[in-house]
Amino acid sequence: MFGPFRLHPELGGGVIVNPSEAAIFIQRLNPADKGKPHWRLAMSMIETAASSEEQEERAASAFATALKTEMWLED
Hints:
Elements lengths: L4 E2 L8 E2 L2 H9 L3 H4 L2 H11 L5 H18 L5
Antiparallel strand pairs: 1-2
């Protein structure tokens, strides 16, 4: 299962609940952030999330890790 991921209030406090929303979020990052290894990995995993439940779980984990790395995930 993917999400929900609650974003830090500084980012608008939104909630991301599926891989499509996560992909849009990453695509909207500024180029410097989007180029960081954790975001590149998360996007790569999200692109294959639909292939299986296991892959979706991996994508969710990669996305959560990227958000935590940036301290953008609301606890």
